[in-house]
Amino acid sequence: MSETITHNQMEHIHTEHVHRDDFGAKIGMWLFLFTELLLFGGLFLLYMAYRLQYSHEFHIGARELNIGIGTFNTIILLTSSMTMALSIAAMQRSRKGLSLFLLASTIALAFGFLVNKFFEWSAKFGHGLYPGSETLLGKPRGEYLFYGMYYAMTGLHAIHVIIGMIILTFMFVFIVRNSITSTNYIKLENSGLYWHLVDLIWIFLFPLFYLMR
Amino acid sequence: MENEHSEKHHAVGYGTYVLIWLVLVGLTVTTVSISGINLGNIALAVALLIAAMKSAFVINIFMHIKFEDKIFKVFIAVALMTLLSVFVLTAFDVFFR
After folding, report:
1. Is A181 helix (H, G, I), strand (E, B) or coil?
2. Nearest CB to A200: which of B6, B38, B55?
3. Were both Cys, which of A43, A59, B22, B66 would link to B60 (CB 3.0–4.6 Å)?
4. Where are the domains of chain A?
5. CB contact at 8 A, B24 and B60
6. A interface mutation test: which of B65, B83, B84 has the most A CBs within 10 A?
7. CB–CB of A48 and B55 under 8 A?
8. List of chain B residues whose C-beta atoms are within 8 Å of the C-beta of residue A183
9. What is the DSSP string of A56-83?
10. Which of A22, A78, A211 sits opposite B47 (nearest CB)?
């Protein structure tokens, strides 16, 4: 009897080991990222169609955007992508403390991005430039559409930044509780992939909205 | 298999990430500076080219795709080509309407 239990326990340990499929988890994460690509791809497609139709109005609309804040936020996100990658590298080298510090830096940078976005949007709202405002409705259709795309796309991106921060906070707790270790860090890797996607989307949003002069 | 995988991961050191970050910041400064020059019709093409270069660095190094199995590269290539063809077809549709 006791032998059977030992055998079962052994088998349990064995199956638990076999059942961990990091490769499959990563493929699954990428498939999810492709759905995100479709979500934003649709908006980029609409942006292109409107821009082709209202090229002049789009240029006028873009002049109102603050290139300084845009550039600063781009560098913040690029830096957060680096700290994210470094956090995984530290975990692979069993440096838990360093990994936690880098992950916390990533979350802090994400928060900084949102703070900038808050001030940027507040300034726009202060000038009466928000969806459905009288100022905006009085403008030509092309400019109205430009701001519509601007708020929809950077807004959806900001929601992704917030979700990313929540996911990364969970990863921080997992590392503290040793649920993520130097030999089992696929959760951290997949969260990193999500974070890099948020950065990738911004890489395209930035020139398309801010750098049209 | 597992050892092989972790060995591949170890190939990317801290220095590589910092170097790629410097390149990405450099490209950002470049694209902002270029946008100040009036390039006319090719301005958008140049901006998108720089954005594509930045993306390639993020996907290959930060997202590890350069060091992953071939299947990931095939998946991404198919996804991006599909997206690109939809964009090209829509652009033609809008242009010649």
Report:
1. strand
2. B55
3. B66
4. 22-209
5. no
6. B83
7. no
8. 6
9. HHHHHHHHTS-HHHHHHHHHHHHHHHHH
10. A211
**Amino acid letter for position A208:** L
End-to-end CA distance of chain A: 80
The model's pLDDT over B41-96, given as tens digits with 9 standing for 90+, comes to: 788 899 999 999 999 999 999 999 999 999 999 999 999 999 999 999 999 999 88
ipTM of the complex in this document = 0.89
Contact between A204 and B55 using a beta-carbon 8 Å cutoff? yes
Radius of gyration of the CA atoms of chain A, in A: 22
Task: Please identify, in words, the CATH class of the domain defined by A22-209.
Answer: mainly alpha
Q: What are the backbone angles phi and psi of residue A181, rounded to the nearest 5°?
A: -130, 180
Do A153 and A71 meet the contact criterion of CB atoms below 8 Å apart?
Answer: no
DSSP B60: I
**Length reported for chain A:** 213
Are the beta carbons of A30 and B69 separated by less than 8 Å? Answer: no
Instruction: Dig out the tokens for B50 from the structure.
Output: 């720089």
Q: Is A184 helix (H, G, I), strand (E, B) or coil?
A: strand
Contacts of B95 (CB under 8 A, 6+ apart): A52
**The Cα angle at residue A198 between residues A196 and A204, in degrees rounded to 5:** 105
pLDDT beneath 70: ranges in chain A: 1-18, 213
